[in-house]
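User: Good morning. I'm curious how beta-D-glucopyranose would be positioned relative to this chain. Could you predict the structure with it bound?
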Amino acid sequence: MSERIADLVSRMTAAEKLGQLQIIFRPNHDDAAALVRRGIGSMFWPPSATATNALQREAVENTRLGIPLLIGLDVIHGQRTIAPVPLAQAASFDPAMVEELAALAAREARSGGVNWTFSPMVDVSRDPRWGRVVEGFGEDVLLNAALGAAMVRGYQGDDLAAATSIAATAKHFVAYGQPEGGRDYNTVDVSDHRLRNVHLEPFRAVVAAGAASVMASFNTVAGVPVHADRRLLTGILKDEWGFDGVVVGDADGVANLVPHRVATDLDDAVALAYGAGIDIEMGGTPESIGWGAERLDSARLDDAVRRVLSLKERLGLFETPYVDPDAEITEPSSESRALVRAAAARSAVLLRNDGTLPLGAPRRMLLTGPYATSTDHLGAWTQYFGARSVSIADELAAQHPEIVVTVLPGVGFVEDDADDIGGVIAAVPGHDVVVVCVGEPSSFSGEAASRSDLRLPGRQAELIRAVAAAGVPVVVVMANGRPLVVADWIDQAPAVLEVWHGGTEAPAAIVDLLFGVAEPAGRLPMSFPRAVGQIPIHYDHENTGRPATTRGSLRLTTTDVAVEGPANVAEKFTSKYLDLDLGPQFPFGHGSGYATFAYGEPRLSASVIGVDGSVELTVEVTNTSTRTGDEVVQVFLEDLVASVAPPVRRLVAFARRTLAPGETSTFSFAIGPAQLGFRLTDGTLAVEPGNVVLHVGPTLAATRPVPLRVTPPPLPH
Ligand code: BGC
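Assistant: Good morning! Here's the predicted structure, ligand included:
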């Protein structure tokens, strides 16, 4: 603790300390100033540089100790320039891009006085019914860890005090991504094995990357609401991992301990939460200052205050509480637009392609579907600005005036009397290509936006089927914030581009992708299920004692991974659904591009290593096409025998690189304890001796194996 903080803490009254442990939601400016004068230590953004400075002035000049404010805001995928939603960013498999986008968001936000964001979300999400999957990086542990850490680096830079940095918050700690039934805020009951190996791992990574704060989640874990869980907040996060930043509660998460029925009243809730390890309560009311205060242990109170003041110090707020209003960034620049346009293209996933994409030089195009004219591309978390982008139709007209485009949406996002599929079909003749722009509007995903039916809403699937039967090449462009069930039309649509909610420049990126000005190379960060009944579904499932395989009449699709079970198990008694093919529609990691690539044999620098050892895995990849394009190489681990049933495959490394036509590039990956090991329930990393196989390739369905033997440590003499 710095001398300044020690001195402040020693001079603070109990009320002043408690004021520092609160963040209050956007009240109007007059209320805000009064609250600050009363000692509230953190506020939601007012929102402008001038308004922020006015609040900071109240804190610095009109409170006894003059402590500046943390100014928080959910800057999730951009402030003024909106980047693709986090789930889309995850599809890029590109940590450098994620870092750059976060740095852009930080620059824009800090220029307006925001110094604290509630991002990244690293909740491993295996249930697409849960609307918040849009806010995170999908179903894979490594992808969440790597991209979460990249986002933290982007927000925080090298120095939190820089005028371009903001403090990051890893959320929602923990296991929020596995709510029962996919219903937001619902119960989570997870084993310590999965907690350690799945849900906690990304948090460990972002804490190691220096995340300044962590947000507690709304859910229970094994019966205990996280806001009251001392084992998780203090035991694991603070004590075991040494996290010395700020633990912030989620909005009213402390007050919610009452309806959770673990606290009798707000007093009780506050005492429980701070006692468990919450340092800042979010969403409290002015009256709550002092709640439960008399029940708080004074050492815990001082610890929480020290954490909050230290963050303010690291942000340089004691020296520079104000920002320059003339330097506030209030709109996207041409550079920031170019960055998010490229990012939107890098986040797109080519789900299928029969060669219709990229489009050549069509003379007449029919643009249909609700996303043809919709300007709802920004996604679930945009704060005050730029609520709309342009539409695909307008962008197409601007970029390609030479094409005669007929725009006929045909259907809306919900079924409506105005739907006119017949009108669209009647218009098809005379067009060279039909582009059907479908999806979910952004309000269908995000917080408190769970769905039980994951098919395209309204009559969009019907529109696709009708157009696909009309005898003209068809391309489907799908914009959405979660994996969807597409089984009712996908086989009839041979060219499908998943573009998610791509942000400010999404329509421009979509047009770039359609014409091959940009190359799709993203990969799915979450499985697309065949049916809602399969959920939760994820590629890194365990094999079970009775895996369903190719034997018998069951259709094994190339999208499932399972290891053959014992030959004496009759097919009838294997793990499957009677009424559904095996595996998801599209698995995690699925996606292709316009360029084509060939893989050499993967090689290891050694075929036998000790449990502490490492090897280098290399594979040569050649661009066999005439286009410059990106390839994403994925490395999966298969542990053949372990003391705990291992996942059938687990992503342990990945890399994305651009290759010119004919170019060969050697990808190399370090494989050591971090890749080979798993967590025991006490948190230790265990690397067990035995045989593993590394599977290397562009997608789960097209990998090449390379075996590795891990030997036990030598016996002591
Ligand atoms: C969400 C958080 C968010 C907070 C503040 C809550 O409802 O769960 O993710 O950071 O609101 O807006």
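The longest strand covers residues 629-639. The chain has three domains: 3-325, 334-514, 597-711.
Let me know if you'd like a different ligand tried.
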